[in-house]
Amino acid sequence: MEQKKLMNKNFTLLVIGQIMSLFANMVVTAVLPFHILSISGSEFLFGMAMGLPVISLIIMTPLGGVMADRFKKHRLMFWLDVSITAVIVLYMLVSGLFAEVVPVVIVKLLAFNAIQAIYMATTAASIALLVPAEKLTAGNAIIMVVNMLSMTGGMAIAGILYDRFGLFPILVGCAVCFVITAVADLFIRVPYTKQETTGSVAQIVKGDLSEALRFIMKEKPIILKCILPVFLMELIFGSMFMIGLPVLINVHLNMSLTHVGIALAIMMFGGVIGGIVAGTLGTRLTIPRGFLFVIAGIICSAPIGLVFLVDTPDLLAYIVIIASGTIFMFCVKIISVALMTYIQGETPTGLIGKVLAVLMVVPYIGQSLGYPVLGRLFQQFAASPWLVIFGSASIMMVVAVIAYLHFKKVMN
Predict the structure, then answer these.
(1) Residue 191's closest CA among 83, 352, 319?
(2) What is the pLDDT of residues 49-83, one digit of tens each?
(3) Which of 114-118, 129-133, 192-196, 316-320 is predicted with the least confidence, judged by mean pLDDT?
(4) Percent with pLDDT over 90 in the chain
(5) pTM, two decimal places
(6) Cα–Cα distance measured from residue 400 to residue 292, given in angstroms and rounded to the nearest whole number
């Protein structure tokens, strides 16, 4: 009976672990790019610091999907949290000597993201095994809300903490978060079916990923059609927001990183509300309806460009950025829940980790390409940032409308 409830013991512990782990990871990985932006004032270096570590996410997420399907997920999560705690402690030990050396910072971010990639793939694969099928949308909505609170909230608070305390206290606090998560992992039990293992590790990984790609491209090509708009959204508009908002507030409005943190914290609640709304919609939330929300979010981003096109007081521009960003976050979370729930429902249990890993790696590829490009564009058009905002919105609007019309046709 326990497993038939949405908030059963295992799923509740999974949610707690997700909150602590993603929050701590995002705080650390956001602080270092903020530090680079603060000392250099370079939008391009900020974009590079945000984009380069995504390489490890791209490489490790598919491997994480394979591991999630082949190993006991609760044990895997425990050892990942132990490993990331060790990385923090090691970095703290050498921080006095190498904290300002860029290659060491990048290596640390790469290691963090590599571990977190496996963790997120494992968590995504666990959801469908821990909640009843009829409550899968609500379960995904909860995880999406948690992700938004943890990741966006972590990035928001990172700016505030960095301004107030510096790097070392942040590392200590994050290490404590990962220790708590590892303890919670010890009490989770995710259903496990052992899969046949033959050949070398490389052959197993190649075979598993080939099986997942074959499923996506041959058996369920509609999943592939879901993935393309996700990639373009992250490449164009997601990158514009993640790089653009800190740059617009910190550089163009000449406000502190604390103001950046406050803005992101407020916008976070838009994503939280979006996740809640998606959960209440349940089966009524279809992919075409999700893309209608995306179109609305893009339209509501237009005021951000307008305040930099016309002469606008800094405080008013700041408020407009927050309001538009909050609405956009609300809309993005709804389509995210719709896509995740649909793909989970269409994928066999033995493939779910690998298939979701493919879905998850696509935004990372978009980020790795989009962050440096958008950083360069905001630097190139420093005198007219509205050109970057309106250009990104126009391209994304075309993508969203085409996606809506296509999915409305094939799913009705």
Answers:
(1) 352
(2) 666 677 777 788 777 777 877 778 888 888 888 88
(3) 192-196
(4) 7
(5) 0.67
(6) 8
- From the CA atom positions of the chain, what is the Rg in Å? 21
199 Rama sector, left if φ>0, alpha if ψ -120 to 50, beta otherwise: left
Burial class (CB in 10 A: 0-12, 13-18, 19+), 24: buried
C-alpha closest to that of 108 among 176, 18, 170: 170
Other C-beta atoms lying within 10 Å of the C-beta of residue 102: 13
CA distance 225 to 219: 13
Whole-angstrom distance, CA of residue 287 vs CA of residue 191: 29
Residue 101 has pLDDT above 60, yes or no: no
b/e code 168-198 from CB counts within 10 Å (16+ = b): eebbeebbebbebbbebbeebebeeeeeeee
- Our separate counts of H helices and E strands in the chain read 17, 0
Q: Scanning the structure block, which residue is given the tokens 């890993």?
A: 357
Which residues, other chains included, contact 117 with Cβ-Cβ below 8 Å and sequence gap of 6+? 56, 57, 59, 60, 61, 63, 64, 360, 364
Q: What angle do CA 197, 202, 205 make, to 5 degrees?
A: 65
